[in-house]
Amino acid sequence: MAAIDVFWTAVHGAFGLVVGSFLNVVIWRLPRGRSLVHPGSQCPACGAPIGWRDNVPVLAWILLRGRCRRCQARIPARYPLVEALTGGLFVLAALAFPGDRPTSAQVCLFLAALVAVTFIDLDLRLIPDRITKPGLVVFLVLAPFSALHAPGWIAGRPALDAWLHALAGAGVGAGVVLAIRWLGSLALGKEAMGLGDVKLLALIGAVVGPWQALIALVLGSLGGALIGLGLFATGRRRPMDADLKLGGPGGGLHAARVRVDPTGIEVHGAQGTPPAPGADVRVDLTLPARRILEDADARLRFRARVVPPVRAGTVRIEPLPGSLSAEDGARLAMFAGSYKYIPFGPFLALGGAAVALYGERVAHFIAHDYPAWVRGLTAP
Ligand SMILES: [Zn+2]
Fold this sequence. Notes:
Elements: H1 6-29, H2 59-63, H3 78-96, H4 101-124, H5 129-142, H6 158-188, H7 195-208, H8 210-234, E1 240-248, E2 251-260, E3 265-268, E4 271-273, E5 280-287, E6 298-307, E7 314-319, H9 326-337, H10 345-378
Antiparallel strand pairs: 1-2, 1-5, 2-3, 2-4, 3-7, 5-6, 6-7
Helix pairs in contact: 1-3, 1-4, 3-4, 4-5, 4-10, 5-6, 5-7, 6-7, 6-8, 7-8, 7-10, 8-10
């Protein structure tokens, strides 16, 4: 056991905070095909450039109380969260590979890619090739410099040994997800996992090798199943943020959360006087850009009828036929669909991070501790 190098661990943490700040830019711009370096950081609301002082990770957000210095628009808490998460993960990498800088550097790069993939998949339900494909190449090339690739398959040829191990990891990772996709399409008649998941587990395999790639998939599936069961048990999907104004005979209201389903819109937490059921109303609905895969928030104006609510405390409206343009109808469907299913990428990423950091311990648990525990249970 090497002693903990406090200085080196702190350097990892500080560097992780800065990388996390950059990942916020990547998460927003990369899937939209924008340049990652130009222009520099901007306020998402007013476009004002953010100076270096207001760009200090986590701290700037706290000092500015989560608002833009110029326009006072709210800056989501997710920005400092991504920074703190990345900083924390880099510290874990420094602690997991003390004194082994080539490995901890590679694992940091890998964890940064996983953070970007996780939040892009949560936002947009896609895993960008622009992360997985170059990542696959980079980690295959760097394999001989990683302590995670020392399987001892070929004596006296460590570099070749590492490359074969990484290549086998990528192959097993891609192969097993492709097999699950194929079985899923036979059993359910629909795709259980996307091609983005295939490339992501190939990338994970290239970093951790074949055996650990399988463990990452099992850990990810367990996490996904638990969350899926939780959502299933709590029943309904939660309403999402949007800005809705509604006016008509006998009232008007304003709300910040809605739930869209195929026939109508459920308005949650409305402020104001809701018009009585049966009334025709004017609706002014702003959908956030990231939920509809567009560059800017979309403002929809249409007419709707107030109908009796399904649940107490909500107002329900249904767009009048023909009042919503085809384009806006598609936007509304995209908004509703953006939370239709649980993305698997974040769970695979979590499994990948766990095995990259604690692979040996997890493998030891599966091979020794767990069987011993089961034997203990069944012993007379
Ligand atoms: Zn601003």
